[in-house]
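PROTEIN ENTRY
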Amino acid sequence: MLLDLLTVAILALVGVRLYSGARYALEPGVRTHLVAVVRGIRLRHLLPAPVVLVLVVTAAGLLVQVPGLDWGWWTEIGGEGNPVIGVSEQTTGSPLEWLIPAVFMVMLLPALPLFAEWEERRFRLGAEGWSAARRVWRGVQFGLLHAVIGIPIGVALALSIGGWYFTATYLRAWRATHEREAAVLESTRAHLAYNLEVLLLVVVAIAFDL
């Protein structure tokens, strides 16, 4: 019963945050900017994403074999994957098993560019002035941030690979333009393309599981 109540509370909190993010993303001024971000996605952003994803998944599969790195607070209470997706053992076998993920993804989609840009500004902006060691460490911090939302620690560490890829994208754009805003926009598009492909795989996985 306690785990059920805790799961409900977490899903309610996640739902509120997703709703707030979607609502903000759809405000006229913000929406115009985010639409421009999405429209700027090109093949150079889309094509590397599956390769990065394969590397992340492979690394995650190895890291979670290490004792302790398979722990995540969301899976500990019966959740599956990421609470943002809304999949939990507590809803298995009920209409909520597909309804909650469907509602969460509808709210997540418009906010996805917003979240990607926030993370790029937080973890990549200014990387042109960092040492190599700091760039590596910031990538690790980017990965570990995701452990806060409940995914296993090993999976979070594997996400560092994505962080390093986004940093490389930022630096490539910086060398071409010497403009921070152009560089962070480029890494945001790479990040968003990656997230969209991951989201597509999640949708397919949930659909086949049903």
Observations:
- The mean pLDDT is 89.
- The CA atoms of residues 63 and 154 lie 5 Å apart.
